[in-house]
Amino acid sequence: MAENVEMVDSKYGEPLRYDRNFQGPRQRNRSCTDVPCLILFALFLGGWVFIARYAINNGDLDKLMVPTDTFNQKCGIDSNVLNKKYLFFFNLEECIDPLVPITGCKTPQICVESCPTQTFDWETMNKNGLTIAQLKSPLICKTEKDKAALHSRADIDKAVRDGRCARHYIKSQPIFNRCMFEISDQLCRRSPSYRTRRDSEQLQLTHNVSQSKKLVMPAMALTLQSEAQARVAVSPSQVAPVNDKGDQCLQQQHDGEVIQKKMMQTNTQLAKMVGNLVTRFYNGTADVQRLGEEIVDDLVNSLTVVIVALCITLIASLVFITLMRWLAAPIVWFSIIGVLIGLLVGIYYSFKQYTYWNNTPTVPQHDLNLFKQIENLLQNPTFWLCLSIALCIFFLTIFLLVIVLRKRIQIAISLIKEGSKAVSTVISTVFFPIFSWVLLIAAIGFAVVVGLYLGSIGSLSFRMVRRLDKPFELNNENCICQGPAINYTIGNACDPQIFHDYCRTSNGHCVDTSCSFLKLDNPTYIRWAIAYDIFGFFWLSFFITAFSDMVLAATFARWYWTFKKRDVPYFTLSHAFVQTAFYHLGTLAFGSLILAICRMIRLVLEYIDRKLKKYDNVVTRAILCCMRCFFWLLESFLRFLNKNAYIMCAIHGKNFCTSAKDAFSLLMRNCLRVVALDKVTDFLFFLSKLLLTGGAGVATYYFLANNPHVIQLNHKAVPTTVVVIAAFLITSVFFGVYSMAVDTLFLCFLEDCERNDGTPEKPYFMSKQLMKILGKKNKLPPRQRRSK
Predict the structure, then answer these.
(1) What CA–CA distance (Å, rounded) separates 188 from 168?
(2) SS3 of 716-736
(3) d(CA 416, CA 749)
């Protein structure tokens, strides 16, 4: 008998010989699982690396970065803009918006030969006595035709007001062939040629400019002269000579002020971006730029408060997980009772609204905007009747489930407490997801870079097209092609250089007819390589997630199957990491391959659905909708099955198919427990995240509101919002690990119930509370009983 009770290994604290079919989550006596799949995965990664190297050596990202102007012309590629490879924005500030990739930049954009090398402002130049030629020279207009049609100041002013010519611009530099602001620390205080300096070198430069003022002067020299006249309030004939050093200094100082006013937006790019984003929800008021600057200022000033609040949130999450071993039961039952009371309140309110609107006839709002339609819905008695019926059904369903599953809810509460003990014991598991996040970011970056380089391999195809004068109205330009281009016709392929050289109108080059870029033709093998890259990303990302899940599962399984919890090894997470990396990468590759195939099928179905939309066939759309729904459900089920298969593999060390079969069979034999545990724990974790996130937000706002002497802010909601978002992410990481712990302990608990009977040969490894709920107990001698 003495030999029978000596069942705990002194090193690992695990059962050894009480069951020959169960070896426990031990690193020893394991073998590599699903090796063929691991080899396949390694070969696949090797092929992916080969494709990446080929793509980088043969791809050209410049093909993808070619800018497109307002007239849908590729700068430097299309026939009409062969010598204009830079894109100029009439008002670049409108493009500093996070939503530009979705909504597009509304300002006119045209192709130019070179980016502006000086600052220009029409209002300033219009005040000076310049000739029409001098005024037209620095103008940048949409087309050469627009610029050629300007014959007077009134014509220029009208073109500027109509948006056919740029009102103002500043010196810029090409970035990815786009004329961008020349950003520097001194930009607001210095102009490229006329800086606010008092040294002799700058004075000499200004003197040289004044001597050549009869020529076409840069806009800043004109600004300098005009503003100086305004300040002394005299007639032009009374103005002091420009070569007077005192007037030069005055003019330069005021020129710097004008530059600073014009360039203020350039040095507040972050504020402008925030302002443009706020515009989407702020109705585009005139104060939106000021609001953006205030938001950015609040973010910078409150950085310390935000960091402290997030550190406190992190500590609070750890404390909360620790306290859950004592507070899980009251929180769960309080949450369930709160939901039932909330449903009763909703039923009462809905029925009250139904009675009111049923006895109060109203005329519906006929406006089509969203708010009016919502108002109509809230005044519809049928809506409130249906809502009250739905709430009654939900209330009865939840109430009956609580009555039927009350004992299983108690089991779920005990497992939540056990999960809290496990996470608190192996606290390093809370930070382990950071490792998988880093790997996922690297995988995303690799896949995107390879995809871009692959997409740039191929030849450019062009088509001869006519520009629309008005919507659905083609121009009547008579563009005649001769020589090598004699066969060029509208809608057919062409070469932009040949078109430019041999296609003419009676007045010169074709303007409204062009040889325009159509698409980048990728060879067939490149398209297959792109599909390979997409599938590789799916497989690798699912593999990384699976690796994290199995490491955590092995850690918590080792904690559960250790007979005396104080004997859990100190480096349990490290042991689990090594065990997974050495023995079960093939299993992870197998499971992630299945998910990747399912995800790829879903992607193909989405592609087919997009292609078939133009045929508007009800039958095909119904079939595709059913298939998309089926594969979405299949992927969700496979995710659930894979997660439990990884847990079983971490416990028993078997291959993927065996582990999946054992996990599925075990869960199906305890389906009611599974439902109760899954829903109860998910709801509890959601409430916990909500509690911690809301607490962090309220505490931050309260501190800022009651301590104005510590920090001065324009809007207290700005740092509060940042804290709420970041706190929710932090709590999601914590409770993601917590959820994995509960899932693992649940499977271990089911295994424990089926394999053991509480005898000295087969003792239970569950907690005393779980044994009490199930009416079980261990029959061990006093000296062998565990300390809980």
Answers:
(1) 16
(2) CHHHHHHHHHHHHHHHHHHHH
(3) 12
Question: For the chain, which residues make up each domain, given as ranges?
Answer: 2-57+438-453+526-656, 79-264, 270-301, 460-521
DSSP character at residue 763: -
Residue type for position 507: N
Q: Name which of 33, 38, 31 is nearest 539 in CA terms.
A: 38
The tokens describing 225, both together, are 């002269």
CA distances 698 to 564, 629, 695, 724, 756, Å, are 42, 41, 5, 9, 49
What are 42-45's contacts with CB under 8 Å, separation 24+?
44/536, 44/539, 45/536, 45/540
Considering only CA atoms, give the Rg of the chain: 36
CA separation for the pair 123, 376 (Å, rounded): 50
d(CA 766, CA 757): 12
> For residue range 748-757, what is the model confidence (pLDDT) as tens digits?
888 888 777 7
**How far apart, in whole angstroms, are the C-alpha atoms of residue 387 and residue 384?**
5
Nearest Cα to Cα of residue 642 among 604, 675, 599, 685? 599
d(CA 722, CA 728): 10
Q: Residues 32, 583: contact at Cβ < 8 Å?
A: yes
Judged against a pLDDT cut of 90, whether residue 533 lies above it is answered with yes
What backbone phi and psi angles, to 5 degrees, belong to 703?
Answer: -65, -45
**Which residue type does 670 have?**
N
Look at residue 515 and give its three-state secondary structure.
strand
**Secondary structure (3-state) at 446:** helix
Tens-place pLDDT, residues 558-609 = 888 877 767 777 788 888 898 899 989 999 999 999 999 999 999 998 888 8
Residue 400 reports pLDDT greater than 60: yes
Whole-angstrom distance, CA of residue 399 vs CA of residue 414: 21
596 vs 153: CA distance, rounded Å: 65
| Contacting residues for 105 by C-beta, under 8 A, at least 6 apart | 89, 94, 95, 97
Q: How many helices (H) and strands (E) does the chain have?
A: 26, 13
In the three-class reduction of DSSP (H, G, I as helix; E, B as strand; rest coil), residue 518 is classed as strand
Residue 96: pLDDT above 70? no
| β-strand partners of 468 | 474
Residue 172 CB coordination number (10 Å): 21
In angstroms, rounded to a whole number, what is the distance separating the alpha carbons of residues 414 and 421? 11
Distance in angstroms (rounded) separating the CA atoms of residues 96 and 110:
17
Sheet architecture: strand order including 109-112: 109-112, 86-89, 178-181, 172-175
Look at the block and give the residue holding tokens 């045209």: 110
Give a three-class secondary structure readout of 465-481: EECEEECCEECCCCCEE
* CA distances (Å), origin 638, targets 624, 643, 646: 21, 8, 12
Q: How many CB atoms lie within 10 A of CB 149?
A: 12
Residue 611 phi/psi, 5-degree rounding, is -70, -30
Rounded-to-integer distance, Cα 306 and Cα 452, Å:
37
* Calpha distance 156→296 (Å, rounded): 38
Q: Is the Cβ–Cβ distance between 565 and 16 less than 8 Å?
A: no
Query: Residues of the chain with pLDDT > 90: what percent?
Result: 13
φ, ψ for residue 33 (rounded to 5)?
Answer: -110, 145
Provide long-range contacts, Cβ within 8 A and 24+ apart, for 1-9. 1/760, 4/760, 4/761, 5/760, 5/780, 5/781, 5/784, 7/563, 7/760, 7/761, 7/763, 8/563, 8/564, 8/567
CB contact at 8 A, 87 and 179: yes
Residues with Cβ < 8 Å from 672, sequence gap 6 or more? 405, 408
Closest to 550 (Cα-Cα) out of 653, 480, 469, 685: 653
SS3 label, residue 425: helix
